[in-house]
């Protein structure tokens, strides 16, 4: 006997597992709704309910169609069939393709925006770097080393120049290791050979021999000695790069002592320990935001608003490049500035981790101050140059020599040692490279050392800036200490209300 | 389709108030078809012996096609259980409340599942990153995208 095929229509009571509506076989619903038993277990449902569930769940991004089109109880797959004509299949397929195309357009578009933004920043930084070099080394050297025409630039200029503004800004942020601001310029550029092309085609022949139109003489860089490297004046770039960090540290120690002496304070413990406490928090004062750098959780607490600055105007003498040092209101100035730092970094008042309090004004001051350095250095150098006209001592110190003389070109490598001895040849070549890096190219040595007086000028400016800042702190401190309240007579009080000694 | 949701919830309401209601589960408050409060306790020898919790169910008109928003009540009277899948604001990381939801489930079924989730707990602790989650969590736990990476608890 064939087994009876039981279907959903043979059930006495039908219960939809989705809407939980019941229907008994003797009381059919009007209008009738189709029932379906789509799986292997006992669950049944209205077809409309189940299709709604499948449609809704499939539109949910988190679910895969496989996880939707199956029974939640027994897991057997639902078989869904529909009228799916060929034309709709094509349309579905083209819809998928079009979305892929759309996604590609979005990616390319976002990429183009990011790229052009980055390229804009890059171009701006590079132009700034070239301007900074021109300001530091002076026009004469700039037209030898770089020129205004970027097609002349050596390839490394495209890496080095955009990094100049970044290194300048970093040099002003105390939490970095404080490189000397002009390191990046003085490390590389002295040894760069001149890039200028001969003025006319006829001297291309001359340039092949390293002679520009017959005007330039050659210096044999083999003739340089150790003295040129270590004892020449102005100091060779190598000497400056070696000595600058020491000078800087020495200056900062001296200045710190000096400012403690001026302010009548004692050095905080962390300075005596010789190690700086790591900065753990950065607080943005005017945005009421706080970032923790160590990533540790701590109970959320509102930072008190940063202390308002007293309405003491900065002294008239200050120009925009000089950052007056912040001081907390109503608290005698405790922590004197550390060297040329423009960020007030102090231990939290609760003795907690070190917090940097930043405001938008401070950030702008740091970045603007850093980017102005090359121009300030140029102006200071020019001022020194004018002064040197009146003092032969200063002239000798700045090693001013009138330009206009022939600019030598080093022949490199053609004039390498002629010796047949390979060891001597190697030694000779190494020496050439050393002096080239250490003393700079012959063109660098022969030019008027604008860079030297500009560097000296920048040093003077930084010291002056620190001194003005210290002076500002000192004046503010004195103002706080001199505060008194005005005493008034009891003019408006009835004398009877007062308990007087002699009534 | 609001009527489907109301009719189905009416049936579940009846079930919760009848003898079919699972042990340890009691409907505390169901004034409408939008928000229900249900008390649950875990019976037997478990880490949560003698503790009482309350669950808040929030339904939208698409229920049961869309899952209810379920969380533990945290107020003066009730606390969220200390459990590796329950955040201190009451939000629960359980797949059946998210992508694992299906209309075959119901309010009592969810309660029973959560009872067994508590009963099988071996260590009372908060989920990793609880503080950060609670600080930024949306009011509705359905808006959170949980990662279901642990099927053992």
From TrEMBL, chain A:
InterPro entries in UniProt: Znf_RING-CH (IPR011016), Znf_RING/FYVE/PHD (IPR013083)
SMART domains: RINGv
GO MF, any single term: zinc ion binding
GO CC entries: membrane
Compartment(s): Membrane
Transmembrane intervals: 101-124
Source superkingdom: Eukaryota
Assigned keywords, A-Z: Membrane, Metal-binding, Transmembrane, Transmembrane helix, Zinc, Zinc-finger
Primary residence: membrane
Pfam families, alphabetized: RINGv
Location of the RING-CH-type domain: 8-81
Coiled coil feature spans: none
Membrane topology summary: Multi-pass membrane protein
Name of the protein in question: RING-CH-type domain-containing protein
Organism expressing this protein natively: Rickenella mellea
UniProtKB/TrEMBL annotation, chain B:
SMART domains from the UniProt entry: UBCc (SM00212)
Superkingdom assignment: Eukaryota
Ranges where the UBC core domain occurs: 4-153
UniProt keyword list: Ubl conjugation pathway
Keyword Transmembrane helix (UniProt): no
Matching InterPro entries: Ub_conjugating_enzyme, UBC, UBQ-conjugating_enzyme/RWD
Name of the featured protein: UBC-like protein
Species assigned in the record: Rickenella mellea
